[in-house]
Amino acid sequence: MNFSEVFKLSSLLCKFSPDGKYLASCVQYRLIVRDVNNLQILQLYTCLDQIQYIEWSSDSLFILCAMYKRGIVQVWSLEQPDWHCKIDEGSAGLVASCWSPDGRHILNTTEFYLRITVWSLCTKSVSYIKYPKACQNGIAFTKDGRYMALAERRDCKDFISLFVCSDWQLLRHFDTETQDLSGIEWAPNGCVLAVWDTCLEYKILLYSLDGRLLSTYSAYEWSLGIKSVAWSPSSQFLAIGSYDEKVRILNHVTWKKITEFEHPATIANPKIIVYKEMEKSPRVETESLAFPPARAQASSLFSTQSKYDISQVPVSLQYVKPVADRANPRIGIGMLAFSPDNCFLATKNDNIPNAIWIWDVQKLKLFVVLEQLYAVQLFQWDPHQPRLAICTGNSKVYLWSPAGCVSVQVPMEGDFQVLSLCWHSSGDSMALLSKDNFCMCYLEREEVK
Amino acid sequence: MGDWKTITVPALSSASKIPYQNTSEKKNRSTCGTSEKKMSPSSLNMQQVLRSPLPLSKSMHSFFSAFCTEENVEQSISYLNRELTTLGFPSLYSECKDKELNVVSVLNCMNELLVLQRKNLRAQEEVEIQHLKLGSDMDHLQNCYAKVKEQLETSRREIVGLQERDRQQQCKHRNLHQLLKNEKDEVQKLQNIIASRATQYNHDMKRKEREYNKLKERLHQLVMNKKDKKIAMDVLNYVGRVDGKRGAWRTGKTEARNEEEMYKVLLGGYEQRQKQLLVENAELKKVLQQMKKEMISLLPPQKQKPKERAEDGIGPVLSDMEEDAVELNKENMWELSCETVREQLTNSIRKQWRMLKNHVEKLDNQVSRAHSGALNGSDVISREDHELETEKLELEIQQCKEMIKTQQQLLQQQLMSPCDDDTSMLLQDCYLLEERERLQEEWKLFREQKKNFERERRSFTEAAIRLGLERKAFEEDRGAWLKQQFLSMTSDHKNSEHVKTQSAYSGSSDPDNQLMNFRSRQKKPHCLPSVPPSEELCQTIQHIPHNSNSSVVLNKTTEDSKPKQWKGLNKAETE
Questions:
Q1: Distance from CA of B367 to the nearest CA of A (A)
Q2: Measuring CA to CA, which residue among A104, A77, A94 is closest to residue A17?
Q3: Which percentage of chain B shows pLDDT scores above 90?
């Protein structure tokens, strides 16, 4: 595993281009585009204000930089560095901005979710979509980029509008039986749309592409409901993580629950492997210490090594009791992700924030539990193989694969707290992001032993 | 009065355990009354049993003299007479003379009185005994009564205690029941509260949302109305579309096309899914068929028949269905996915499974019976036998192993034992001695045989030479004979047979030539015992019969003999 040197970064804005050749990063109001292999600066763009969001277009030719405070979106071209484009929402304000799948339209969500403005780079035309839903995942594109689903709310009722992305024609418009829609997501095959309700009610609705309601699923009443949803890459399974610390899997044939995964604090089944991160402090040879100590030595002296040990079942994990009277409590399944080969499902129970649970999808059983020393911030699957990268906010990055798991210290001077990471589309490298810096980590083939 | 220690009737005395020893009079009862309850000084003697009916002590005399003295004899007699007559005795006076004592009647009366006294005493005794008995019974009863009374008391107290406890439990039960009811009510109340709060919340939310929408509308209007230049896009130049084409107008056609596209995508998804499901179905059907076959094979064949017979009316029908199903399945298993086929398959599998289960259960029963020692079938081996067998086998294995070990050891010893050169040499050779001797014997045999064969071959060759010579002679004779024949024949048919004679001549000359060859080659076998000459000779000999038909029989015999000879030669040569 090789690490590159650190580069400056702000707001954790670092993205790989979809074709995998470039890496875009932001430092305050500057956008820097680097080559992925040697990290040399290819382009440098300057925006009008501090950048809050960047996104590559699907053909990797353009990057949009959104500045919400000023309400401006600036688009830069890689081919023609002189080309510029500035979209000003003015008094309407800006809350969110994203590309359309064809890479030629930009969808801006104005403040208060007043409307969504569709700006076209080809025709300089503008379209408005009224009454968008004020929720996080209100816009969803199918994987092939043909259709867009938009959540709307009119007269205290939720609606879904389906648009054809090529000409923005409204294909279907139907209402949903939700109290307060909180998210929508297309299945990877683009035929089914999952719509789920607010956390006050456990309800998930499945609509077909032509707007028919295929099925409704509700596991229980009254208690807090759905927290996170994930489709399996083959569209066979829909995993629903809820506030009762369980994940329920629905199958695509009958849309009924086939199993539920529990996340208890004690694991007693001897067939489950539990990897526990242990600290081991490095041995310090006092004779070889120089005075004053060199900087590199100093940091390595105080950094603790860690390794994974296999714990013997029964294992009891650290359980955090949530604060009872607050809204949005830290309980339930907060993160769900299927591996790209559809073999594993990684989940995180916010009640047990230090652990990651990896389930075998073929057998529908718990496979591995990773217990970290600190709370898990983010995990992401390698886009090509069943390899999971985890960061917990310390200076290490963790990798798990069915062959084993490894904890790698990021060899940087000073503090490098890995807050986020993202994989390169080829799965050969990943970017580790900290608050002010980022670095690239190149993985060798068959790295994890 | 005196101290008469007589035992009086208890009726006279008060009810007491200790019989009083009252003084009494025989004659003067009234006076006895005063002295009845008087305890004589000699009451200390009460401890002693003084139950003698006959008073014998001295004090009796004084008692006797107390009633009648010399002065009042007449009065006492008249008194006694009066008493006795009232009691039913005859009078004491004599009949004829008044105031004269009838001694006889007096004596009779006395006797009667004595008898009476004795009777009374006996009665008194009995009564006393009974009295004692009754007294003891009474004591016993009193004891029992006391005990029973105690028990009654205790049981009464217990009852009271239990009643008390029961009451307390009832109270508790009622309390708990009440609590439960309260809890249930509370739960219901809370649920109602939640429901009402939910509706309230929804209502409020809706209200707020409407307000919010109004604000949004207002804001929207403002934003739209302002139309300031700020809301604009500033682009350097147009960007081409991704696919390089121009943008198209949105028409009804495009809308229809979009709909079509959407449906195509949906259908594509469904078709794919259906394909997957079909494949899965086919696989599962295959598996089920296999399972069925295996189950059928597992079950012993004779078991199936009684089972089928047992199912009476259902049996034949099912078997028919089975046959149909089998036929159907064999023909087009994979294509059919209709209801009936599926049902048939599942039914048949269920049936087989049931049979298999019964069979297994039967086997289990058999095994368990064998365990308990009951009579077992010939195919079921009891555990003890099994264990014995295994023990025997283990012993055998052990023995064999030991034997192998010892043999190995011996072998090692043989190989490793230190010895000097001579012995080692000897030892080295000792294994081969036998073989060597055998080999030598065989060599001898071989050489002998070789000699024999050589001799035989020589004899054969000589015989062959002789035979050749004889043959030559014979041929010459034959030729001469033929000549004569032909000469005789040609004398009959002169011209037409000319050819024949020629041929005959040629035929005859050939044999001569060939015989010459034969002779010359005859010499060869002596010097060169090789195979080819013999073969050539065989061939030439065979040529001879081809030339002349009449000599076929003769040649055959020569053929037979010659090849045989040569064969023999061949054999000798090869050895």
A1: 35
A2: A77
A3: 26
